[in-house]
Amino acid sequence: MTQDTEAFRSRYRAGIHPLYNAWLHGGFVLLYGIACLAFLISTLESVTAWEWLVVPVTLVFFNWGEYAIHKNLGHHKSRIGALFYKRHTGDHHSFFVTGQMHWESAKDWRVILFPAWLILLFSAALFPAWWLLSFLNANLAALVAITLLAGYLGYELFHACEHLPASHPVSRLPWIRHMRRLHELHHRRDLMQSKNFNLVFPLMDWLKGSLHWEPLEEERPVTRMQHHVDIARSPEQVLTYAASATRWPEWHPSSLRVEGEPGPMTAGGHFEEDIHAGGRAGHLSWDVLEYSPGRRWRAKASGTHGLSLVLTYDCEATAGGTRFVRTLDYGFSGLAMQVANWLVMRRRIDRESVESMGRLKEMAERLPDFTPATASSPA
C-alpha cells in the first residue's frame, strides 16, 4: 500500500462520526430490504409460468442499470451524480487500490456500503411504480419490484464480499472469487473508467465489450514440460551456447528470429523473439531472471494469445560431459487458448521440444571452439 493510500485511509477514518455503527448500518439495510421483500412476496397469488418470465427480463434491466449508473455517474463527473461520484471515485477508489482491496475493521464498511438512506429512496420510487403496475397485473408488478429490490440487496452483498480479505472462506467460493478478481481489476487506475462495471454478474460488461480479465500469476493454468539430453561438452560450454538467445533459431524449431545482445544473456537482460510453436505464430518479450555460468539459466516471457512462460536450463557435469535439462512452464490467460493447448498445442510443443534437444546436442558438439564472442544474430 502506497503512502498516499495510507494517508487517505487515515484521513477518511478520522472523518467518520464517532457514533457511526457499521453493524447498525448493514443490519438496517438488510432487515429493511427483507421486510419489503416479505411484503411484496405476500401479495403474489397463483403466479403463472408466463408471469415468471418477467423475472429474467427485470434482472437484465437491473444489470443494465447497475452498469450504466456505475459507469456514467460513478466514474464521470456530472451535476446530477456529483455526490455519487465523490463517494465512489473520490472515496471508494482512493480507499481501495490494487493489492489492498480488503477492509480492515467494521468501520471501513462505510466506504463500501451505500448510505443507509439510499434504500429508503430506492423503495420510495419502487413502491409507487409497483402500485401503478398492480392495476395492470398484480403478480407482474410484485415480481418486478421483488427482482429490483433483490438486485439492490445483491449488489450490496456482493460488493461487501468483494472487499473481504482473501483468506476469508467466503472469498474462496467460486463465483465470489471470480467477481472479486474482476472488481480488483476495475480498481486499477488504468482500468476503472473503462472496464468491469458489473459487480454481481458481468452481462453488460460482456455485451458492451468492457469485460476485462487477467488471472493472478499463481492462478494461471500451467503446462510443464521437462526434457534432457546428454552432450559431450563441458557444462560451461553447453550453457554458454544454450543461453545465447540469438542462436536459438540454430537449434530450436519454434524459434524464428531473436533480437538481442549476442552471447549468453545475463540476469536483467531483455530480448525479443518471433516464434511458431504448437502450430501458431507469435511473439515473445523476454526478461532474464538468473544466469549462473555452467549451472543454471532462467528467464520469463509474455507474448501474444495471452501466453506467459518461464524457461529454465540446468546443467550437471557427467562423466561424458553434461546433462542438459530444459524445463518449460507455460500457460494462457484466455479460455479458448487453454482449451486449444489441452486438445492440440501441448502435444505439438512437446514434439518440438524433443526435437530441439537433439538439435542442441548436435550443434553444441559441432562447435568445440564456441565462445560468447562468436555469437551473432541470425539473418
TrEMBL record:
<keyword id="KW-1133">Transmembrane helix</keyword>
<keyword id="KW-0472">Membrane</keyword>
<feature type="domain" description="Fatty acid hydroxylase">
    <location>
        <begin position="57"/>
        <end position="209"/>
    </location>
</feature>
<dbReference type="GO" id="GO:0008610">
    <property type="term" value="P:lipid biosynthetic process"/>
</dbReference>
<feature type="transmembrane region" description="Helical">
    <location>
        <begin position="20"/>
        <end position="43"/>
    </location>
</feature>
<protein>
    <submittedName>
        <fullName>Sterol desaturase</fullName>
    </submittedName>
</protein>
<dbReference type="GO" id="GO:0016491">
    <property type="term" value="F:oxidoreductase activity"/>
</dbReference>
<dbReference type="Pfam" id="PF10604">
    <property type="entry name" value="Polyketide_cyc2"/>
</dbReference>
<dbReference type="InterPro" id="IPR019587">
    <property type="entry name" value="Polyketide_cyclase/dehydratase"/>
</dbReference>
<dbReference type="Pfam" id="PF04116">
    <property type="entry name" value="FA_hydroxylase"/>
</dbReference>
<dbReference type="InterPro" id="IPR023393">
    <property type="entry name" value="START-like_dom_sf"/>
</dbReference>
<keyword id="KW-0812">Transmembrane</keyword>
<feature type="transmembrane region" description="Helical">
    <location>
        <begin position="49"/>
        <end position="69"/>
    </location>
</feature>
<dbReference type="InterPro" id="IPR006694">
    <property type="entry name" value="Fatty_acid_hydroxylase"/>
</dbReference>
<feature type="transmembrane region" description="Helical">
    <location>
        <begin position="111"/>
        <end position="133"/>
    </location>
</feature>
<dbReference type="GO" id="GO:0005506">
    <property type="term" value="F:iron ion binding"/>
</dbReference>
